[in-house]
Each structure stands twice: as structure tokens, then as C-alpha cells.
């Protein structure tokens, strides 16, 4: 069955903005401003404002001037399409090409705009339809659905004395290398209280054992 695609072709920059907006709201339920979006992409607030206005005209985001930015249903579909590409490519790089989990993010960023949906579907099949990427993040299905998660940041966790690591943020390659050396990987158990500092703990999500 052919999947929905907006007839208005998106540019690489537009795809990056939609994916970044989704990523900012996937684990933190806080309003996203143009400033936060600019920081996420390493761009100026003025550039972000201009792009958000373009995306709003295309009905891909909802935005009130000086207010929060949210994805429209169409924008969310496009964002999840890019997230699916990125996470499948990360999984391929690790499982098939031997990349470290601290190396796959930037490579996937470069590749995700160059492949087709057909290629991604074939890659998904070749990999055995994985449900999670190397960092524990859920991989959207072809129709854009994601399983619900009850994971919380380790620095905010107040459950039992033992928890299971659900995901590790891929924002800091240095932390990923240190986490791997400490055995902090998705699926591993961690005993509380832990020895991680506040910043490191904020990059680990856990769920009850």
C-alpha cells in the first residue's frame, strides 16, 4: 500500500526542522520556541523564525508569533518518516558495517536525505524489522506508529532500587563511549542510588525492572 506523502516536495532543511521539532518534544513535554529550535539545529533564531513561517504556510506546523511551535498531523507524519530513516540507518551502520554506537548519529544524518522510502523499507526488512535503534530509541513503523514508553530520566526516577535502562541520549558521543565502558546500555540493569553525576544521569532513561 502506498504511504501518504505531501505532494509539495520538502527541502532538506524543511525535513531537518520537522525532525528536530519532533525530537525536542519526544521525551520532554515542554513548549518549543524558535530559540530552542535554533539551538537544536545550530542556527540563528532569525533563520529559525523564517523557516517556521514557511512551514506554517505549508500547514506542517502550528505557530503563534512568540508562542510555542507544534507539529500539525501532516508535519508529524513527515517528521516520523525522517526519524524512521535516521534510526534504521543507525541500526544498519552498527549491525552491518561495524560502526560504534557513538559514531552512527552523524553518519545517519548525512545519509537520511539521500535514500528513498523504498530503500528504507528494504533496509527494514533486511535488518529483521528492528523495533529500536542502537541507543534504545523506538523506530517508527512504516505507517508512522510508535509504541508508548513509560521510561523516565534517571535523575528524575523515584521507583524501586533497581531499574532497567530503556534508552541513552545520543547527543554526546563522549558520554556514549563512557556509558558503554560502564555497561550502561539499553536493557542493562542499574542499581540505585547510582554514581552518575546529574548531567550524565539526565541522558539515561530507565523503567522499572
TrEMBL record:
<feature type="domain" description="HTH dtxR-type">
    <location>
        <begin position="10"/>
        <end position="72"/>
    </location>
</feature>
<keyword id="KW-0963">Cytoplasm</keyword>
<keyword id="KW-0010">Activator</keyword>
<keyword id="KW-0804">Transcription</keyword>
<dbReference type="GO" id="GO:0003677">
    <property type="term" value="F:DNA binding"/>
</dbReference>
<comment type="subunit">
    <text>Homodimer.</text>
</comment>
<dbReference type="InterPro" id="IPR050536">
    <property type="entry name" value="DtxR_MntR_Metal-Reg"/>
</dbReference>
<dbReference type="GO" id="GO:0045892">
    <property type="term" value="P:negative regulation of DNA-templated transcription"/>
</dbReference>
<keyword id="KW-0678">Repressor</keyword>
<dbReference type="GO" id="GO:0046914">
    <property type="term" value="F:transition metal ion binding"/>
</dbReference>
<dbReference type="InterPro" id="IPR022687">
    <property type="entry name" value="HTH_DTXR"/>
</dbReference>
<dbReference type="Pfam" id="PF01325">
    <property type="entry name" value="Fe_dep_repress"/>
</dbReference>
<dbReference type="Pfam" id="PF04023">
    <property type="entry name" value="FeoA"/>
</dbReference>
<dbReference type="InterPro" id="IPR007167">
    <property type="entry name" value="Fe-transptr_FeoA-like"/>
</dbReference>
<keyword id="KW-0238">DNA-binding</keyword>
<dbReference type="GO" id="GO:0003700">
    <property type="term" value="F:DNA-binding transcription factor activity"/>
</dbReference>
<dbReference type="InterPro" id="IPR036421">
    <property type="entry name" value="Fe_dep_repressor_sf"/>
</dbReference>
<dbReference type="GO" id="GO:0046983">
    <property type="term" value="F:protein dimerization activity"/>
</dbReference>
<dbReference type="InterPro" id="IPR008988">
    <property type="entry name" value="Transcriptional_repressor_C"/>
</dbReference>
<comment type="similarity">
    <text>Belongs to the DtxR/MntR family.</text>
</comment>
<keyword id="KW-0805">Transcription regulation</keyword>
<keyword id="KW-0464">Manganese</keyword>
<dbReference type="InterPro" id="IPR036388">
    <property type="entry name" value="WH-like_DNA-bd_sf"/>
</dbReference>
<dbReference type="InterPro" id="IPR022689">
    <property type="entry name" value="Iron_dep_repressor"/>
</dbReference>
<dbReference type="InterPro" id="IPR001367">
    <property type="entry name" value="Fe_dep_repressor"/>
</dbReference>
<dbReference type="Pfam" id="PF02742">
    <property type="entry name" value="Fe_dep_repr_C"/>
</dbReference>
<dbReference type="InterPro" id="IPR036390">
    <property type="entry name" value="WH_DNA-bd_sf"/>
</dbReference>
<protein>
    <recommendedName>
        <fullName>Manganese transport regulator</fullName>
    </recommendedName>
</protein>
<dbReference type="GO" id="GO:0005737">
    <property type="term" value="C:cytoplasm"/>
</dbReference>
Amino acid at each position: 500500500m502506498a504511504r501518504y506523502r505531501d505532494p509539495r516536495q520538502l527541502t532538506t532543511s524543511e525535513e531537518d526542522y520537522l525532525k528536530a521539532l519532533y525530537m525536542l518534544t519526544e521525551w520532554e513535554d515542554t513548549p518549543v520556541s524558535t530559540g530552542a529550535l535554533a539551538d537544536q539545529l545550530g542556527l540563528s533564531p532569525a533563520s529559525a523564525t523564517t523557516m517556521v513561517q514557511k512551514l506554517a504556510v505549508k500547514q506542517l506546523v502550528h505557530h503563534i508569533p512568540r508562542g510555542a511551535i507544534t507539529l500539525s498531523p501532516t508535519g508529524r507524519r513527515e517528521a516520523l518518516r525522517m526519524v524512521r530513516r535516521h534510526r534504521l540507518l543507525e541500526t544498519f551502520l552498527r549491525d552491518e558495517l561495524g560502526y560504534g554506537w557513538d559514531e552512527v548519529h552523524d553518519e545517519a544524518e548525512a545519509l537520511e536525505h539521500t535514500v528513498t522510502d523504498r530503500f528504507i523499507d528494504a533496509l527494514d526488512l533486511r535488518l529483521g524489522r528492528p523495533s529500536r535503534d542502537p541507543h534504545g530509541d523506538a523506530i517508527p513503523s512504516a505507517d508512522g506508529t510508535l509504541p508508548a514508553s513509560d521510561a523516565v530520566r534517571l535523575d528524575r526516577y523515584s521507583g524501586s532500587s533497581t531499574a532497567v535502562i530503556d534508552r541513552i541520549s545520543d547527543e554526546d558521543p563522549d558520554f556514549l563511549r563512557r556509558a558503554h565502558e560502564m555497561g550502561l546500555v539499553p536493557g542493562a540493569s542499574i542499581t540505585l542510588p547510582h554514581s552518575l553525576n546529574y548531567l550524565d544521569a539526565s541522558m539515561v532513561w530507565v523503567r522499572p525492572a
